[in-house]
Design brief:
The chain has 578 residues and is α+β, with helices and mostly antiparallel strands. It has 3 domains: 273 residues, Cupin (Jelly Rolls, Sandwich); 103 residues, no CATH class; 65 residues, no CATH class. The protein contains 15 helices and 20 strands. The longest helix is centred in the last third of the chain and has 18 residues. The radius of gyration is 24 Å and the shape is globular.
Length: 578
């Protein structure tokens, strides 16, 4: 979707109190998924959108939009890490082949929107784009599917679903992104599995429509359902994420613009000039039209400006991902989003926290130093939905409202600062609410069977004493102290940050104290190519220069971490020829 802006960036008129509230709203930005369409206030979205009324057939055939050199084709089997390390992902790549050849898994061609309904749940509330004004409305998935199946001549309005993220649903078992995407995706590889938690709120009519809320950047798996004549105006995907895109049914038409300096400047002016109804593709030097047929797959790189038209009813799968070969563009887009005051609903959640996990992973590879304090499943406030949750079959459990009627209601103590909640909402922990296997606190008398992955009731006499949280923390601290004293590469001894509230902290810029020498893994460091080095240097510079950052949960001694990261990059730079 095109980015949305708040009506203004002015400080509220009620002085310091208002400014403090504004800062609090800003710091909670990462609690909301870019994909779930959380309610926001402070701007009239429909008034900021461009009304679109273009002759799309003429635009599809306009010779000025024929620049095939923009879009590359290649042997599907050549899309691998060797190709990526050498070339990155700089240009759109169009595949017309069996998706299995690029490592994808997809449903059969007879898969339909009814199957989406069955696998995701009809009572899930979703945000739907109203094409005529590019605004949006909320409705249940069942209501949208009913509209989608309405004959074209009877559709009085056009609705377009672009943000149905289906991770942690049964549909995830049927759809896998290209193998290369899964290999390089920051979220999939660096975000701790123990933090993949979720909770569900019920609201709407009779409180039987649910919204899932997540504690990780949930942008990897989208199902897009568009009826004929839908159009999405020119935009750059949030935080400069790259995109994988597969057309299962129907057709899609893309107008693609490269992220050159000139185009980027023109685009920013286009976003700010909300009353401009001209087709943006004619405002830049070059724009290319690409048509995707059923079975086609496309990779769209970071920062590419694009618009999308749907000639026929379509069903598409796609996803967004960040990776190391596009750090410059990703950060550039992220900073422009800050500059334009793009509202949090259309931003990538946990952006800066993710960067810390990426940096810590590189430092561990290069030096052996560990800065991420191990995250226990027992520390999770809500239901755990990582590998163990899948092993237990939780992701195959169809969500029904009746499953939650006796569930544990979330209290204000469990979710502090949840400004969007209302008294009419019924909030429950996801899936196994009243007897969570992995949540804290645990009051269930059930035990976990490793053989079956299911709960088994324990006898009263067998119930053992359970540690309090304070006792558990003390025991764990003692274990980590002992480990840190015996291993000079352990840098996660301290627990000084209030990570639960994701507070901004400035201590990534504090002076570095006495540290043991850095031991370099020369084999790993030698694999840093000049191209990757340029990108990672930009990442390090961004974090170093920022006054305050969102330090990820479990990251300890961030100043030392960033210093080590920069030291390795400087070492590698000195080894390369000038």
């Amino acid at each position: 979707m095109p980015p949305k802006r708040k009506s203004n960036g002015k400080t509220p008129a009620n002085g310091k109190k208002g400014a403090k509230k504004a800062r609090k709203e800003s710091s909670s930005e990462h609690e909301h998924s870019a994909s779930e369409g959380e309610e926001t206030t402070g701007f009239d979205k429909s008034s900021l959108q461009r009304c679109v009324n273009f002759d799309f057939e003429a635009l599809m055939n306009d010779p000025s939009f024929q620049h095939p050199e923009f879009v590359h084709t290649m042997d599907p089997e050549a899309l691998n890490l060797e190709f990526y390390d050498k070339n990155g992902l700089d240009n759109p790549i169009h595949f017309r082949c069996d998706p299995k050849r690029i490592g994808m898994t997809l449903p059969s061609p007879d898969f339909s929107v009814d199957d989406v309904l069955e696998l995701v749940g009809g009572n899930r509330m979703i945000e739907v784009v109203q094409v005529q004004n590019q605004g949006s409305v909320k409705m249940s998935l069942q209501e949208f599917i009913n509209f989608y199946k309405t004959p074209q001549e009877k559709r009085e309005v056009l609705y377009n679903v672009l943000s149905l993220e289906f991770s942690q649903t049964p549909l995830e078992d049927l759809v896998k992104s290209p193998e290369l995407v899964r290999q390089i995706d920051w979220v999939g590889n660096q975000w701790p599995d123990a933090l993949r938690q979720r909770w569900i709120s019920f609201n709407g009519r009779d409180k039987k429509f649910y919204n899932p809320h997540h504690t990780f950047p949930k942008v990897q798996n989208y199902c897009l359902m568009s009826v004929a004549n839908c159009y999405t105006d020119f935009h750059i995907d949030f935080s400069g994420t790259s995109v994988w895109y597969h057309v299962l049914k129907g057709r899609k038409v893309f107008w693609l613009i490269p992220p050159t300096e000139t185009n980027f400047f023109i685009y920013q002016e286009f976003i700010k000039t909300v009353n401009d109804n001209a087709f943006f593709g004619k405002s830049v030097e070059k724009c290319h039209v690409a048509i995707l047929e059923p079975g086609d797959t496309m990779l769209i790189p970071s920062g590419w400006i694009h618009a999308v038209y749907t000639p026929d009813d379509s069903l598409v799968f796609g996803g967004n991902f960040l990776h190391s070969q596009s750090c410059k563009t990703q950060l550039r887009v992220y900073q422009v989003e800050n500059k334009l005051n793009i509202t949090r609903k259309f931003r990538l959640p946990y952006n800066e926290e993710l960067i810390f996990y990426v940096i810590a992973d590189y430092v561990k590879q290069w030096t052996g130093r560990e800065y991420v304090r191990p995250l226990r499943i027992e520390d999770a406030k809500y239901d755990y939905v990582g590998d163990k949750w899948k092993t237990a079959g939780g992701h195959h459990k169809k969500i029904e409202y009746s499953d939650y009627e006796t569930g544990v209601e979330l209290t204000n103590d469990m979710i502090k600062g949840d400004e969007e909640s209302t008294k009419d909402e019924v909030k429950v922990i996801a899936m196994h609410a009243e007897n969570s296997l992995f949540g804290y606190p645990m009051v269930s008398k059930a035990t976990f069977s490793a053989d079956t992955g299911l709960e088994e009731e324990a006898d009263e006499d067998e119930v053992k004493y359970q540690e309090t949280k304070e006792e558990m923390d003390a025991r764990r601290d003692a274990e980590i102290d002992e480990l840190a004293n015996s291993n000079s590469l352990i840098f996660y001894k301290n627990r000084t940050h209030d990570f639960v509230r994701n507070k901004c902290v400035p201590d990534h810029k504090l002076p570095i104290g006495h540290e043991p020498p850095i031991y370099f893994n020369d084999d790993e460091i030698s694999r840093i190519s000049p191209r990757l080095l340029d990108e990672l240097e930009t990442l390090g510079t961004y974090i170093r220069r920022k006054a305050r950052v969102e330090v990820a949960e479990g990251i300890c001694q961030p100043a030392s971490l960033i210093n080590t990261f920069q030291t390795v990059l400087k070492k590698r730079r000195s080894e390369l020829p000038n």
